[in-house]
């Protein structure tokens, strides 16, 4: 839970705060309680009823539930009594291969044209052989609401080293082309919406040896979580790494590139518009 980078506290559209990891910019402003906040509150109030459990009782960095020490409280993207299972019924497990495959997920409430109090959520685990890492690319985001914190819907992609951290959340067409490489051989994906159906398209594959964010592309398999249809299509082109961030437009409205101010922020948020791309 956090203020967004602009939201109601910014009078000129400039970001009030900028994350060190810029891929977290759209995650700021989330209304959801994070795993670390839950862990912090349990420690603060001395909820140590499960101290008799071994340190690694819960998988994937979860911790024993003080209300029932035989069950665990899990980081987002993990579930089951011991945090070693995919949560929820919606979604599935996907196997990453050398060539790109494509996941097309439609999540949201049918026959509604407004936000609701309940979220429809789907969970996916993209798995690779042990020791391999996974590359995930956002190829499409259709009919969604773009807000700070992706509070009404979006996709969360967990590729970081610390499994307890919230994943990167995206809910804007301006994030299309964003590519992430995982730290482990499994990537939890969460899609969610509290409103009408949103279509989220991701491509995924095993990271080629010696490759950061590019490589050979082939036809891809698209899986629709709602009706199970599978089709084959060519993948969209990969964007270059030097790209403006979604918040760049708001920054340049008040401080154009030619104005010698906020240069460090501009280099991070508007490298393409301001001619600051590095070779």
From TrEMBL:
GO molecular function: metal ion binding; metalloendopeptidase activity
Domain of life: Eukaryota
CUB domain mapped to chain residues: 90-194
Assigned keywords, A-Z: Disulfide bond, EGF-like domain, Hydrolase, Metal-binding, Metalloprotease, Protease, Zinc
Region (Disordered): 211-242
Protein's GO biological process: proteolysis
Domain Peptidase M12A positions: 1-48
Biased composition (Polar residues): 211-230
Annotated Gene3D superfamilies: Collagenase (Catalytic Domain) (3.40.390.10), Spermadhesin, CUB domain (2.60.120.290)
Keyword Zinc tagged: yes
InterPro entries per UniProt: CUB_dom, EGF, MetalloPept_cat_dom_sf, Peptidase_M12A, Sperma_CUB_dom_sf
Name listed for the protein in its UniProt record: ShTK domain protein
Organism: Dictyocaulus viviparus
